[in-house]
Amino acid sequence: MKVLTSDWNSSKDQITFVRKQVFIIEQGIDPEDEWDEHDEDAVHFVTFGTTAVPTGTCRLTEEGQLGRLAVLPAYRHQGYGEMLMTRAIKVAREMGTQKGFSQCSSRCATVLHKAKLPL
């Protein structure tokens, strides 16, 4: 398992693959609502297992918002989500973010709380 810190232009294919599967197909989110102006400027994180196929993704906006956390169904409950959040928190701290906020599940909130980065 590994996590890549990237940008939209470098990892757009991997990011859109995961988010389309999770948010648009699985959760029924309208594609127009999934993609926004923050994607191009955000720091993106993509996880991989033993192959080049992405397993999950999330993003950190310039405002310090952690979001768009998505892990493909076959890879859930294996630590990919926590890996993504841990890396995002590390990068947020490196960027000088003192206070983060997130739109994510209670499990995601638990990871943020453990890292002492307030929601």
Give a structural overview:
The protein is of the alpha+beta class. The protein has 4 helices and 5 strands, in the order βααβββαβα. The chain has helices spanning 8-26, 31-34, 80-94, 106-114; strands at 2-7, 43-48, 54-60, 65-71, 101-102. A 5-stranded mixed beta sheet has the order 1-2-3-4-5, sandwiched between helices. Strand 2 and strand 3 (54-60) form a beta hairpin.
Question: What distinguishing features does this structure have?
Answer:
alpha+beta; globular; 5 strands; 119 residues
Beta content: 15-25%
Strand order of the largest sheet: 1-2-3-4-5
Radius of gyration: 13 Å
Q: H/E series, N to C?
A: EHHEEEHEH
Note the total helix count.
4
**Quaternary structure classification:** single chain
Number of strands: 5
Supply the helix-strand structural class.
alpha+beta
Mean pLDDT: 86
Bulk shape = globular
Distance between the amino and carboxyl termini = 27 Å
Outline the biggest β-sheet. Answer: 5 strands, mixed
Helix content range = 25-40%
Spans where pLDDT lies below 50 across 5 or more residues: none
Task: Please write out the topology.
Blueprint: E1 2-7, H1 8-26, H2 31-34, E2 43-48, E3 54-60, E4 65-71, H3 80-94, E5 101-102, H4 106-114
Parallel strand pairs: 4-5
Antiparallel strand pairs: 1-2, 2-3, 3-4
